[in-house]
Amino acid sequence: MKNIIMVFLITFIWIGMTETTVMANDNIELYINNEQKYTDPKPFIDEQTGRTYVPIRCIAENFGAEVDWLESEGEITIFKPNETIIVLFINHQEAIVNEVPVYLDAAPYIINDRTMVPLRFVAESLNLAVAWDADGKWINISGEINNPQNNSTVIELKLPDDTIVNIHLLEGWEYQQGLQYQQGFFSLHELFLLRHESGTSISFLVENLPEKVSRDDYIEETRAAIVKEFNVSDQDIGSAEIPENTYSLWYMVEGKNYDYIVYQTLIFPYMDSKYMIEKYAGVLTTILPIDFADELISQIADDKYEIIEFTNPRWSFYLQDLTIKNGELDFNNHLQTE
Fold first, then answer.
1. Percentage of residues in the chain with pLDDT exceeding 90?
2. Which domains does the chain have, with CATH numbers?
């Protein structure tokens, strides 16, 4: 049983580690009103046109604009209420700004499901100022923040034991609909994936257990599967098991273009006094690109508590305080609680 669920889980981890291919590895830092932002893909300079490209949603949504995508036409519409409507077309050097056709010297295109647009054209069409430091390789986009109030999205999911999970989407996060998977004697329920503009992802799944299983056996098989599938030494897997109904582990995985930190929390909501798990086990997985890990670990941990709300305290999760030192994971013996 555990081999089957681990195959499914590992497949989902790889989904969260979608590789990003960019035209040039420029390591450009992006700032919005002097606050650094982390995006996936990172901003880059197109070698043919010399134009800087950024993910459109990061720019638009940070300044109160909405983005609509019409896949059949390859059409992107950026709408800022009472101000500007920009229509762009993938791989075409034409655009429409407030119903006026304009010509672009660099066309928008898609990289790994992300729409990349020439920064200066879009920013200036939205009345934003762009500052570029060629020596420091940073961009600062400045303008009035005019985000709509009280428009936070809440998504409600139900677990097999009728526990409600409320997903509160914060700025920079996207929700992808989960799957309900059932085969034979076990099933996975309410699998969801949250993606951050930095490339970080959070996923959650629940396994229905057909019979009781030892907590230690469950953990041992999980670690063995990680070692086998990701070529990670067991000694390189950090772990913490406080409180007893959770088990956290973290490790690094090499990707094609980036390396990642994987942080997983196993949740045992129904466990008896003999440490036998019954009914269900949950797996909460966070994947962070190593390039952003120093800056993002604390922010993502804080976001996770705000985003995911279980109505049943049995499913409450706890995060250990992780940092990066000299390119390696470091665990500070600090326990956060809700």
1. 9
2. 29-142 (3.30.457.10), 152-335 (3.40.1000.10)
